[in-house]
Amino acid sequence: MQTDQDISDPAAQVIEAERQWLDAHLKLDLVLLDRLMADEYLQVNDRGELLNKQQVVASFKSGNRYWQEARSGDYKVRVYGEVAVVYGCWRAKGVNAGLSFDYAARYVSVWVYRDGRWQMVSDQSTTITNEE
Fold first, then answer.
1. φ and ψ at 13, to 5 degrees?
2. Residue 65: per-residue pLDDT
3. 132 lies in a domain?
4. pTM score
5. Domain residues for 73?
6. Beta strand pairing status for 99-114 and 83-96?
7. Position 65 in a domain
């Protein structure tokens, strides 16, 4: 939850949006995901494919996904006016399309401030293969 101090701090606002994004994944909250994703959202997936907002939301609607754990941190935020770039790490465990996953990655996400809120326009993650 944001405090009064965060209202004038764009980096804190973006980190809060990142936390909401993660929570929406964990709870499969499609309404919140839709709100956080810009209409022009594009994701670069782990196979190098571009997925648009409709494709990503549809993958959550399939009912074949369950998250046991989702957490993120190690945020580095760069704000350029109404655009923010976030670098971070995240970890997720669960089941997708009947297959178990345990995924750790470093990611970059791009957010745009419009209509009084931050919306993600793109993200991409790279698997961390040797966690220490």
1. -65, -40
2. 74
3. no
4. 0.86
5. 4-127
6. antiparallel
7. yes
Beta bridge partners of 123: 43, 109
Cα–Cα distance measured from residue 98 to residue 109, given in angstroms and rounded to the nearest whole number: 27
89-to-32, 68, 122 alpha-carbon distances in Å:
21, 17, 16
pLDDT in tens, 55-114: 998 888 877 777 888 889 999 999 999 999 999 999 999 887 788 989 899 999 999 999
Any idea what the CATH number is for the domain that residue 34 is in? 3.10.450.50
Residue indicated by tokens 């196979």:
47
Q: Are 69 and 94 in contact (CB under 8 A)?
A: yes
- Specify the DSSP class assigned to residue 25: H
> ∠28-107-95 over CA atoms, to 5°?
35
Q: 114 and 82 in contact (C-beta within 8 Å)?
A: yes
Residue type, 18: E
- CA torsion sign for 72, 73, 76, 77 is positive
Residues 123 and 47: their CA atoms lie apart, in Å, by 14
Structural domains in the chain (count): 1
**Exposed/middle/buried for residue 47 (C-beta within 10 Å: 0-12, 13-18, 19+):** exposed
